Amino acid sequence: MATEKLSISKAINASLRTALESDPKVLVMGEDVGKLGGVFRVTDGLQKDFGEDRVIDTPLAESGIVGTAIGLALRGYRPVVEIQFDGFVFPAYDQIVTQLAKMHARALGKIKLPVVIRIPYGGAIGAVEHHSESPESLFAHVAGLKVVSPANASDAYWMLQQAIESDDPVIYFEPKRRYHDRSEVDTDATPGPLHTARTVRAGTDLTLAAYGPMVKTCLEAAAAAEEEGRSLEVLDLRSISPIDFDAIQASVERTRRLVVVHEAPVFFGSGAEIAARITERCFYHLEAPVLRVGGYHAPYPPSRLEDEYLPGLDRVLDAVDRSLAY
Q1: Model pLDDT for residues 196-217, shown as the tens digit of each residue
Q2: Peptide linkage before 242 cis (omega within 30 of 0)
Q3: What pTM did the predictor assign?
Q4: Is there a catalytic annotation at residue 285?
Q5: One of 131, 141, 180, 285 is an active-site residue; which one?
Q6: What is the DSSP string of 188-242?
């Protein structure tokens, strides 16, 4: 068993290294991913070990980066594209939603595009404008794309492996505020399916469902609630498209209450779809309406205000209180 404690950023680096070693058709592309090793040093050392033909420093042109990856995938390669910051992805949005997501259907299944687009996302790093977005629902809305986000180092390693092996395009959102969080990673393990949710803390009174950076916040909320005699279950969704509604339903049928938490704005966020589906599926089990906790329907603020914008422990616990008051 090859188990070691890694940060999320180091786990992603190790996963990319494993993929590059295992398959000569895997390429890593993006702005400053090579010599610099990425602005977060996630790709550090890969170009030195695998060469400039496998780990490619691209021009500062996201549309060109994704367009080139699509062409490479058509020729049998498996490109792993890094978008340097979440807010930089929008110049490539057209390529992603009109080409990458549609090509398989357009070709009646004859063409596959095994492209992974890695996007560091979310706030709480004190960055300037366009560096702290949470655009996951924009991509989850697009048929033809898979959208996932790990919350710990083990998932960061294995979910990226599975994304690279997938013949479908995968948007892989990396919670940049958690890059330095460390946990055990067993690189010899057999991972579960990519798009299944996982219960990370069992409970009986209410379910907190989250993904990516908010899983840790929900675990902290559950620990705080326990001191008041409340038992909260925490469900790590892991996948945003598709969503494991069966796992959410099973949890809600036990706890009878659900609060969905994400950094992205609540308005038209992924939590809205979850709330609607679970209300349909669990209407006669619910003892309170499904509540949502997230960012505000406003542009991401300057860094001095981001603590007020981002959902934190108090806002999660307030939603718990409101749900349990029914």
Answers
A1: 999 999 999 999 999 999 999 9
A2: yes
A3: 0.97
A4: no
A5: 131
A6: TS----TT--EEEE--SSEEEEE-TTHHHHHHHHHHHHHTTT--EEEEE--EEES
